[in-house]
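Lab meeting, action items carried over

1. Structure of the three-component assembly. Owner: GW. Status: complete.
Input record:
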Amino acid sequence: MNRAAAPAIAIVGRRMGAYGLVMACLLAIWQAAVTVFQIPGYLMPAPAAVLASLADNASLIGSDAVFTVFCTLAGMTVSIVAAMTLAVAFVLSGLLSRALMPLIIVVRTIPVIAVAPLMISVFGREQWNSIAIVALLSFFQIMLAAKKGLLSPSANAIEMMHVYGAGMCQVLLKLRIPAAIPYIFTGLRIASGSAILCAMFAEWLSGAAGLGSLTLDAYSQQDFSLMWATVLVGTTAAYLFFTLTVAAEGLVLDRTR
Amino acid sequence: MGRLSIDRVSKVFDIDGRQVQALKEISLELEDGQFGALIGPSGCGKSTLLRMVADILPPTSGSISIDGAHPSQARKDHRIGFVFQDATLLPWRTVLENIRLPLEIVAERDPDREKLPRELIELVGLSGFEKAKPSQLSGGMQQRAAIARSLVLSPRVLLLDEPFGALDDITRSRMNLELLRIRAETKITALMVTHSIQEAVFMADRIFVLAARPGRIADVVEVGLDRPRSFAQMSDPAFTGAVDRVRQCLFDQQAMAAIDV
Amino acid sequence: MSSRISNVALPGSVFLLLTLAFELAGLAGLLPPTIPRPVKVVENMVGDGAVLWLHCRSTVLTAACGYAMAIGAAFSAGFLVHQHKALETAALTIGTVLNSIPIIAVAPILIIWMGVSWPMRITLTAFLCFFPIFVGMIQGLGATERNAGELFLVLAATPAQRFWKLALPSALPYIFLGLKIAAPLAVLGALVAEWTGTETGLGVLMINAMFNFQMERLWASVLIVCILSAGSYGALSLIERVVLTADRTADGIAP
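Predicted assembly:
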């Protein structure tokens, strides 16, 4: 464990601790409500039942969760590569930017999940579909953030590089990309929060393996405790994913600033 | 009518549990129709004092009276006009609508008053800009509109918080003359916060020089210049004498502060 | 003026070129069976026009009702929070917690409570739209300039005058931002509700087309959904431009 990583680990620990505390409080209130008002299990299962179901089905939920997380990671990797490439291309070519940006802005307003059935047909019912949906969802956030970041250096800074005789590549490598890093992380952070839930949704609709299908299966078998257990795991995974992005951001920014 | 009197007013702010004395035992008087100026170093509490007169902030101790009434009563009776450093015009309203705003808030149908906004637009020299949006006006014109708005309910006392602080020097001088002319026509009592010694002497009958930490009155300078004022008076010995006295007082404070440290 | 024309012409021609490329690729047999030729999709839209229209109507109805319900709820909550500042943190916390419940968990609960019905569809839609509008409302009402607040104090304005003449107009750019983000979500909410097993709606049409491998119909219904969501966003941008002067528009969706 090197020293530089310590603050990042502290961030993850603190945030997950706070999350656990909030969750524990919510579950306690929920349990109390179920007990006091004697709400039947099919309307709202008790947290105790949900946690018991989580323990009973730990290996099933665990393997599905790993699968969903894998799809999410793969999707985000694809989208980071695509988004960065396109953002750089847009900054280098004004013509390309003027030709494509308006289309991207229009397409961006369409919720990705709304076109999920089409994605399922094109990408099949296996993991490719989840990966594609996550990639598409994250792409816009990261691309727009990266573009904003690449354009963030002031005219003065660019003129300064020009005076020193820097070429286009050097301006990009020494000025624009370092300036864009905080922006890219902002985009990543926003995308990471919804990525896992989006992957779950894709699975819910397509029936591919993963947490989302497990939620649907549990629902169709009227096993509401299991359904909520999967939702709990999904939400926790989403928060963990978000927190890891925040920690990575802290780590990288510490090193570059 | 229009008398402003501040009697041993102090203000203590509570900043994160720490008591900070912003103003200590401030007393000052302005007769009806007099023009007062508040001048002092940054952070001496000039704006705070003005806001207490306008009943935006309550004083910690001491009393303020406007025509013998408590500020909150004066405020509810619309006897106070206030001009901010930035014009604070509502961007979605036209110039005329901005000037009409106080009338809408009073919400009484008085046909005499309904004519006032247009007369005031003329008074402040904005004729032809009634339908313009604030963003289409220059800084000086925005401030003219703000002054017109502050006068629309015919207040007894006009409070100005560095009204021309954000303007360039030339516009500022022109606005000073305009304000003097408006004041002469309306006979209103005015109290203005300013950073400029020249401006204070040029505008005011009575200048209150404040010292900082805690804010207190260090000197009161009576300006014995005839009205109407003109730029020619700036070379008058009475003018330069008053400027010197205010500067001396502000400078002495700085020297004292240096010794304190 | 010429740059304004090229602003439309350039992306427009790119779009046409892409469509043409797909058409040619389809004619040459290069496209997989899941991607039909654009001409086939348009043919299907015309041929199935009556069916598409029927289902489109039901989706639009759900989206509009849910959107209206969300606006009503967000405005009432926003007004309350504005009048009682102490509620703000609590309201935002509850909103955030509700917003972080995955929609695939909300849908089953609503079905259990309301059955597969119109109220369920509308509530689900409203649930999805509520948060952005509410956040826009709260942020906007909190964004009143301090000096303007003092001006209204000096003028002895009543709380109601303060709300209608100052806070609400100040908040409009933020409110529009929330309304714009929520509009496509209303379409999405209607679709998700339809996917849970209703009998009408574009979502139903889509899912059935997907299962029966009717690719032209699937693409046609997805295309309509895209037009609906982008169109609702665009329509609100236009309204925003009319209501607000140019200098007051909040700039787009912040990434």
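2. GW to write a short summary for the group page. Key points so far: Chain B has two domains: 4-79+156-260, 92-154. Residues 237-260 of chain B form the longest helix (24 residues).
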